[in-house]
Design a protein that fits this description.
heterodimer, A: alpha/beta, D-Maltodextrin-Binding Protein, domain 2, 2 domains, five-stranded mixed sheet, 21 helices, about 10% strand, globular, B: mainly alpha, MetI-like fold, two-stranded antiparallel ribbon, 17 helices, about 70% helix, flat
Chain lengths: ~550, ~325
């Protein structure tokens, strides 16, 4: 009996210890701890040794095995003999997840950093601490295609100058088809053209904020689609609502800028910001803006317009690559003809388009300083291919010679039947791996202008939207980058960048009892933030 | 262990060690059983305490925790310069003090009700119904609340149907936020927390009830004079622990129930720490300073509650 008790006791202890060990495994499910596959000898086009590369970005398809998934991913990974281990970063956690890994010196071999004005200070901090791999000084000679794309991003060379070397390779939105400088954003009004016409207003490709509000008020009043109680004249989540009312009216609403006296000022205090805020309040208090916009997620505001067909206006992405797909999905879900889906540019109350230079990049490739040289070199080789003339169309159009090819004039021609879904979700698309994950350095925005798989009229529509952003703006409302401000990465600036403007302004709008009360709340908030803002202004104006 | 030398007891360390060793050897199975728990505490509770030193340092990842430069109270100066920080403290205290008043008594009441239910079967069913919500995550509860209390939710639809009222923004009105927090907290946790009180009630001598019944005590009198005094020590311990948690707790709940419209009344200290750590620039030292401040206040509150309970005749938590 005693022996049995002892045995049970020891068993229990062993069980608890094993449980503890399992729970406390330092690396958890970190794929890096898995032993790389044994070398399979020379492989791929360049006689490469088999290598495992871990990669993190928000567009990795969760649960999808890129190594065996589809013919395109197999082609590209076999070509460079890579065993790919993708880690999906949720959109909302992109920066904080990756930053935490970088700070813990535990980043994947390759990652896409969410580079931007608000994250530059962190990036500079990582570089100073040696937490990001510095590329060798001769990298541009070794990978000339990547280098030429890199040169067009503006940010890349600027960072190189600032850091004294290359740590990040920004991915270019445009390479062959850059619409202009500064670069316009694709964010656009999604509007129900049939409802606009039904309430007696003109369907066009640009509207001022008051014009949109007027149309929305008429839609609310007349309900041209007979939607009934579910009708939402304007449906947008908090982030897009702030873009709509504030960014479209006040270029520097959430940052600093040089005013007419040449001194730096805070954009939240600008007159146009308050004007936009008042319009936001008006739209909310009169019921034309979704009364629960603050509860909407990105998909939900899109859903009300595109899937349910109960919203008249929304403000969402308008990438060239998607303008046709938007219409196809809209028709599939609502049964309404795609022509009822109008895309337009939003202008401020002054009739001008407002935006700060988007800068020709989105996301920057960076490498772990702790992984083998072979890993970053292999990924650079892969990027060298995807930025080549033969490689870059594949990231959007699939396999050369099967899905697309060049004709005798050097134009890209499609080899797939019209309507073929090349990229998209698993089960629907021919190549779910297509996109920016497998080494894209030239993003989809560029090829979309030339992609024969997208109807010409849709491409032309998109080009027109880009064009009117240049035609309907002034250098003061559509500004170039102020690199001094952009690169300012002091502790004070880092703190100031932490202000969540969209949430703060949304809170004022929903809390206000009248327009006068809104102004009081706004003034009180401005005063309360000065302890954070003033030190930055002092630094900038020194 | 202690040797008497002319009336004064002298501590004999050698014999103390020998006795302890013998004791451990004699009860080795029990000590072995304690080992995993002890290891857990050392690894996950005591060793991380060194991380608090970050609050006084400027964290540089390459130098690590110990070699990062010491900056004194610099991080705390920054913490107190942020207007949102003091606001978050007030919000935390307001929400959690309300929890003590409105949420804390519910599991006790529920346990008393369960104890009074005579039929075993209905008791089990009731218990299961009340315990079930504990297993739902706050993310799910948040979605359920949107379906129930949203402007197109069940409650607003019913109100409209019955009284023709306009939709009420239950989830976006700041004044409804605190009641929402308490109601969902009670719904989700009261059944689970009641288990502790029910265990305490089951330890009360049944003869006391029988004697009271013979003496003609009513049900309410039995609850008041037997059950409640019987579980008093459990209530006190849990109350002191709840007071010690006044500056923290409820992050998941607040995070999932709050939105841009209610954030001013919902940004508790935990929410603030989350925002500054993960939503803005990554600054571990700043976050550590806020966390250390929070823990210190929690400790002080716990000690104060313990002392007050002892003063008014309770047993307290600490020796």
């Amino acid at each position: 009996m005693k022996c049995m008790k002892r045995f049970m006791c020891l068993f229990l202890i062993a069980f608890l210890i094993m449980g503890l060990a399992a729970c406390s495994g330092g690396k958890g499910t970190d794929v890096k701890t898995q032993a790389p596959s044994e070398s399979t000898g020379g492989g791929g086009d360049g006689g490469y040794e088999r290598i495992v590369i871990t990669y993190a970005c928000p567009q990795v398809v969760e649960g999808y095995d890129y190594n065996t998934g589809d013919e395109y991913s197999k082609f590209i990974l076999n070509k460079f003999n890579i065993e790919f281990q993708g880690i999906n970063l949720p959109w909302g956690e992109w920066h904080n997840m990756l930053s935490t890994w970088i700070m813990s010196q535990d980043m994947p071999d390759v990652a896409i950093y969410n580079y931007g004005e608000g994250t530059h200070a962190d990036a500079a901090n990582f570089v100073r601490q040696g937490l990001i791999r510095r590329l060798p000084d001769d990298w541009k000679k070794r990978w000339p295609n990547v280098a030429s794309v890199y040169g067009t991003t503006t940010l890349g060379p600027k960072l190189e100058e600032d850091y004294g070397g290359t740590y990040f390779i920004p991915r270019a939105r445009f390479f062959y088809n850059l619409p202009g400088d500064p670069l316009a954003n694709h964010w656009s009004l999604w509007m129900r053209a049939d409802w606009i016409a039904a309430v007696g207003k003109e369907v066009k490709n640009h509207y001022t904020i008051p014009e949109v509000l007027e149309i929305a008020a008429l839609i609310k009043e007349q309900d041209p689609g007979n939607v009934g109680a579910s009708l939402v004249p304007i449906s947008m989540d908090t982030s897009n609502t702030s873009r709509f009312f504030l960014e479209a009216n006040s270029t520097h609403w959430n940052t600093f800028y040089k005013d007419s006296t040449g001194k730096y000022a805070w954009g939240a205090m600008a007159e146009q910001t308050l004007e936009g805020l008042k319009l936001w309040y008006k739209a909310y208090s009169t019921g034309i803006l979704d009364q629960e916009f603050y509860l909407l997620t990105h998909e939900k505001d899109m859903e009300k317009f595109q899937t349910l067909g109960i919203a008249g206006v929304s403000y969402l992405g308008g990438q060239t690559a998607d303008v046709e797909r938007f219409r196809i999905d809209f028709t599939a879900y609502t049964g309404i003809d795609g022509s009822a889906f109008n895309l337009a540019t939003l202008l401020g109350t002054d009739g001008n388009y407002h935006q700060r230079d988007l800068i020709n990049f989105w996301g920057a490739v960076c490498f772990s300083p702790n992984s083998d040289d072979a890993k970053y070199e292999r990924w650079m080789d892969l990027m060298e291919f995807t930025s080549s003339k033969d490689g870059y169309p594949g990231t959007q159009m699939g396999l050369k010679g099967i899905d697309w090819d060049y004709d005798e004039n050097g134009e890209i021609v499609s080899l797939v039947p019209p309507g073929t879904l090349l990229a998209g979700s698993v089960g629907d698309a021919k190549y779910p791996s297509l996109g920016h994950v497998l080494g894209s350095v030239i993003l989809w925005d560029d090829l979309a202008f030339d992609n024969p798989n997208i109807g010409k009229s849709f491409r032309e529509e998109s080009k027109a939207l880009y064009k009117n952003r240049y035609d309907l703006s002034t250098p003061e409302t559509f500004t170039k980058v102020d690199w001094k401000l952009w690169m300012h990465s002091t502790e004070n600036m880092r703190r100031a960048r932490g202000i969540d403007y969209a949430t703060e302004f949304a809170n004022m709008v929903t809390s206000a009892t009248s327009e006068a009360n809104l102004v009081e709340l706004y003034n009180a908030w401005i005063s309360s933030q000065m302890s954070i803002i003033q030190p930055v202004l002092d630094e900038l104006n020194k | 262990m202690a040797v008497s030398t002319g009336g004064i007891k002298k501590f004999d360390f050698k014999s103390y060690l020998a006795n302890t060793g013998k004791n451990i050897l004699k009860n080795r199975e029990k000590y072995l059983l304690i080992l995993p728990g002890l290891a857990w505490y050392i690894i996950f509770a005591y060793i991380p305490i060194f991380g608090l030193s970050l609050a006084f340092k400027k964290y540089i990842a390459k130098l690590g925790l110990f070699r990062s430069p010491f900056v004194g109270l610099y991080n705390f100066e920054n913490v107190f310069a942020d207007p949102a920080f003091m606001k978050s403290i007030i919000t935390t205290l307001r929400i959690n003090a309300g929890r003590l008043i409105f949420v804390f008594p519910f599991p006790i009441i529920l346990a008393l009700i369960f104890n009074e239910v005579r039929l075993g079967k209905s008791k089990k069913i009731l218990q299961s119904i009340f315990t079930f919500p504990h297993f739902l995550s706050w993310v799910i509860v948040g979605s359920i609340m949107i379906s129930i209390l949203g402007q197109r939710g069940i409650v607003n639809s019913l109100l409209n149907l019955l009284f023709g009222t306009q939709p009420i923004g239950f989830l976006g009105t700041p004044s409804y936020f605190q009641p929402l927090v308490y109601l969902t907290d009670i719904w989700k946790s009261a059944g689970w927390s009641a288990i502790i009180y029910m265990a305490a009630i089951s330890g009360i001598d049944v003869e006391q009830y029988q004697a009271a019944e013979i003496d003609g005590a009513t049900r309410l009198q039995r609850i008041w004079y037997i059950t409640l005094p019987g579980i008093k020590s459990t209530i006190i311990v849990l109350f002191i622990l709840a007071v010690g948690n006044l500056m923290s707790g409820g992050f998941e709940q607040i995070f999932n129930l709050s939105n841009a419209a209610t954030i001013k009344v919902a940004e508790t200290l935990d929410m603030y720490i989350y925002r500054i750590t993960f939503r803005g620039s990554v600054d571990f030292s700043f976050s550590a300073a806020v966390s250390l401040f929070r823990s210190t206040i929690n400790l002080l509150l716990l000690l104060a509650a313990d002392r007050i309970i002892k003063r008014v005749g309770g047993t307290g938590l600490l020796a």
